[in-house]
Amino acid sequence: MRSLVALGLFVAPVFAVVGEWGQCGGINYTGDTVCDTGLVCTVLNPYYYQCLKGTATTTTTTTAPTTTATASLQALAKAKGKHFGSATDNPEFTDTPYTSLLFSSMFGAITPGNSMKWGPTNPSNGTYTYTNGDDVLNRAVAAGQIVRGHNLVWYNQLPSYVSALTDNATLQAVMTAHITNEVTHYKGKLYAWDVVNEPFSDSGGMRSWLYQTYVGTGYIAAAFKAARAADATTPLWLNEYNLEYAGSKYTTALSTVTDLVNQGVPINGVGFQGHLIVGSVPSQATIVGALNAFTALGLDVAFTELDIRMTLPATAALLAQQKADYKTIVNACLAVTRCLGITVWDYTDKYSWIPGVFSGQGAALPWDENLLPKPAYDGIVEALKA
Ligand code: XIL
Fold first, then answer.
1. What is the mean pLDDT of residues 337-343?
2. Backbone angles phi, psi at 321, to 5 degrees
3. Nearest ligand 1 atom to alpha carbon 241
């Protein structure tokens, strides 16, 4: 009895109040949680709550992560045989709260949003720079994550020395040189390569661009063969958006990929980018049908760049619809054995590409601009747990 009293007297001072700027909560935090008078425990991100000046009415603690909001998307996906990943970009690495969640057990796969593309890695003929791509790779590997190579051949972000070419033979030579160099550099280190990105037109048929114009559709097979020649084992993918809708773009994609497979071109998967719109996501049955059309060719599929945008401002109704839409995508992937996983095109609205490209739209990701989980996050968790 006396010792318990003694213990109580000893323990009491441990529950000290936290001063201004001190940590008062967050995932894995076990210290004191009560702020000093006049301070409010404020959620800066799921991993870090801080005592800041303010009143209870202005605190953000009402949006603090719930128990479910701390669930690892990767752990839940892994239990279903999938991965759950995020894209990222090097300028974001100075944001410590951001990187501490990105390179954590929350995610199992990382895609560099820009740093492995043709322009950034091969800015002039014969010059190769992999510093940023290597930085993404090394951080992900240190966190136990797998990395997707993105991408080798795309109509955007080309080096200017390539954009200036019009000669078929020269275009083929520079493409082969670039693919050979980059695939060799990352040989054996990536779980997949997006070899050709967005080769189809939204209205059906092939996208009209430099290589389609001056080399012809054969550039696609040539790119896959060059990648395979440089790395015998890394899975090689074609990556495209708007395949979820089973429209004319999907029809062209399916017939073109069927030809590639029939010709023995070394292709292993088709990435569904998943750049979608809140309230306009196709039904689960439509998406599953589209995924299965490619798996029937002996290919793997995945959602490689998922984001579901809305017209701003975000309202409770839009966020609720977005939650339902994220669930639809997760459920579609879960329904297809060869859907290997889901990657969001960055995890937070803070670093989404959407507002910069689609005027007036945004709020497309499962975490908001303050790194707080949104209803969409809960939807992903619910679908992965079901
Ligand atoms: C985007 C990046 O996120 C942006 O930072 C960049 O300015 C443009 O490219 N489809 C793709 C991705 O395959 O490479 C694109 O990424 C988004 C659309």
1. 98
2. -65, -40
3. 10
- Whole-number Cα distances in Å, 26 to 66, 135, 159: 11, 27, 44
Q: How far apart are CA 260 and CA 88, in angstroms?
A: 31
| Pocket mutation for ligand 1, best pick of 136, 345, 350, 358 (most atoms within 8 Å of C-beta) | 345
Tokens of residue 206, six digits: 């092939």
Burial label for 355, CB within 10 Å (0-12, 13-18, 19+), is middle
> If you measure from the C-alpha of residue 352 to the centroid of ligand 1, how many angstroms do you get, rounded to a whole number?
10
Task: Say whether 305 is catalytic.
Answer: yes
- Residue 214: CB atoms within 10 A of its CB come to 16
Question: Both tokens of residue 338?
Answer: 């060869």
Say if ligand 1 is within 6 A of residue 114 CB.
Answer: yes
CB 305 less than 6 A from any atom of ligand 1: yes
Ligand 1 contact via 300 beta carbon (within 6 Å) = no
- Residue 84, pLDDT > 70, answer yes
Tokens of 215: 């080399």
Phi-psi region of 54 (alpha: psi -120 to 50; beta: other; left: phi over 0): left
- 248 — pLDDT class (breaks 50, 70, 90): very high
Amino acid at 115: S
The whole-number pLDDT of residue 47 equals: 66
pTM of the entire predicted model: 0.84
Q: Average pLDDT, whole number, for the chain?
A: 91
Tokens of 3: 């010792």
pLDDT of residue 257: 99
pLDDT bucket at 18, cuts 50 / 70 / 90: confident
